[in-house]
Amino acid sequence: MLPPSRFAAPVCPCLVLLALAGSPSYAQPQPPPAATTPADSRPVLAGRVVDPTGAVITAATVEVERDGHRTRLRTDGAGRFLFANQAPGTVVVVASAPGFTDDARSVDLPSTDAATLVFTLQPAGVRDDVVVTAMRVATPTSSLPHTVTIVDRARIEDRIAASDDLASLLEQTVPGFSPSLKKMTGRSESLRGREPLYTVNGVSQATPLRDGSRDGHSIDIDFLERVEVVHGSNALQGIGATGGTVNMVTRGPNADGSLLNEVRLGTSVHDSFDGDTSGSKLSWLLGKRVGAIDVVGGIAFNKRGMFHDASGTPVGLYPTQGDIMDSTSRSVYGKVGVDLSRQQRIEFLVNDFRLERDGDFLPVVGQRSTGRLGTSAPGDPRPLVGDPARNHTTLATVEYRHTQLAGGEAVAQAYWQQSSFRFEGGAFTTFALTTGGPAFLDQSAIESDKLGLKLTWTVPGARLFGIRTTTGLDVTQDATSQILARTNRAWVPEARLNEVSPFVQAQRAIGPRLLLTGGARFEYARLVVDDYTTLPSNNAVLVRGGAPSFTNVLPNVGAVLTLGAGWSTYTSLSQGFTMPDAGRVLRDVRLPGRDIDSLLDLQPIVVDNREVGVDYQRGRVRAHLAYYQSHSDLGAILVATPEQVFNVRRQPTTTSGVDATMEATLHERITLGGTFAWQRGRFDSDLDGRDDTDLDGLNIGPNRLNLFGTARVSRHVSARLQVSTLGERTFSGLAASRARFGGYTTADALVGITTPLGVVRLGIENLLDRQYVTYFSQVDPLQANDTFFAGPGRTLSVSLQRRF
After folding, report:
1. CB under 8 Å to 598, separation ≥6 — which residues?
2. Region for 501 from its dihedrals, namely left if φ exceeds 0, alpha if ψ lies in -120 to 50, beta otherwise
3. In angstroms, what CA-CA distances link 351 with 294, 324, 397?
4. If exposure means fewest CB atoms within 10 Å of the residue's CB, which of 279, 359, 391, 419 is most exposed?
């Protein structure tokens, strides 16, 4: 237990700010103006949005359309909205919110009077006209022959009330996403048994030449409007999406010009109220549109404490890879948009994210043979591991859009990204200073610089015989290396990847029920590596440089058939492309006389994804079921050494599975739903053309059932309960892992309360205080003692979200 002063440090700032939020200077938002305004002013359009019980709906979207032009804003904490300075005339007003049907009406604005409206939204399933941008062009989900999961802002806010890391959000909402490791690394976090591609507004966060599995920690989750997940391999966003695409869409200002001013304050603690477990968070988002210019900016601070398991024992820290326990993150985000004309817009974005472990605790290794779990103890880890683990990612983009260029819509996006991932080290023989020498304390860091340009031009079907076509070109330059930071030695030499990738995509409706899609991406990649010498532990051999190049044509075809009565079905075949972790291959060379051009392990990974699915949506019920099979002739499997150094093994791999989701609104106040995922992975261990061994737990997740229920308890109180069951898994075959997964069930709860101060959310993670060993710890192929740790026990969180 920490002294009282240390316990108070992370919590007090939140308490002070909570108190300020209730002071007179932060008064409750004023009601809409009266029914009349001064005679010399333009009318206003004002009102509120409620559900059938009369409870207000916060953050609902209200849109005003006049002569083909639209303005949009969100309701405040009291469900109110206001459009000022409206010209007289007829407008169409549409109110919408996730989980409700839209309400639209025509309003005649008089020259002097204000219009005050009340929209009562009825519960409904997720709308089938939700548009996603993860496929390069904004496309309704109903037109995509893929499984697509949209995690909107309301669902994000619900989940982060209990746990605020991205992987925890995805595992609870996305079928086929493996359990969150709750560490700084995303190792073992997969989608359909393969790596997902994380993007921010379409810009890849991956470092494919040396994958540090840190791309899930690149922006604060409070700055996200929604997360779009396209399941299955595809090549539309370029290299890396062998398991699917996770596109994080950032937030923007209110479109109507009203001020966006949102503050979120939060604190969390284990139910033992041990001061070491307390954490606090503050985020602030400010934005406004003035004329043709809109600006939004935000800053977030997050201090995480230690996690304790259900027995009250500190959870073990993850050696080498890094941890989000005992850490502090800071994220700065900004976006500026300028409407150059009605058809042209330019937008600038900057995001800088830093996450670093504080270094106040040491790992205490467990003992699997006796069942003693790893834990953590106060202390300075630097003499044992070097500097604490750290993530630092900076992204800058500029995007130009012309909606009527040569009969189509053109988008050009240029970006620059710099990433630095520091790992904790140790005294390992891998880091020996001489061949055969003793273990030496060192630590590594991955450094990556990336430049890119993405061009897209879409022509509507009316101009090309009903065929909507999208053509584009991606150009990327990525330079990545891995150094040993304490001695400034190159563990992985700088590798430079240059890509030039044109593509074309087409969509054609055949009658009112059938939609066909197809296209191809031509991928040209050239990898340049200069001469280098491996570490002494790998015999200090000279490896001749080279510049191997790869060319691939990656096709995709699909069809969506509307059957009627709420039913539709689809099928698709698509290919995704990625590089193996070239850094692991380069640093693992041990024999003399090798050169870059002859290293077979640098050949690309091409993954075929076949999928068939059926959807149902009618009234208050929606459901989705899909079967998929994914195969790669030259896959990449991670294999751990005794020192927890992971290398790449190239072998044919096949994964298959079933994804299912269902949601039903049973009553105006109650919604029930869930997701289910069954998956299996096999590989050819002896290269005889037959898949003979199960993929281990590092490469595929468990079968999983998530169930949830939401209830509107009263006008001001809502609740959500979620239960997750992970099924048992064993591994069999010629070269199977000896690990096994015993499964476990956990539950989380959330209560949201609308108050005059804002929305207060109370979250409980691991509601039943279940003691369990995490999936990664149970399936670790090495069954190492230093990765034998439990998951968090019951953890309490409270947050206040206020919009001014």
Report:
1. none
2. beta
3. 17, 20, 9
4. 359
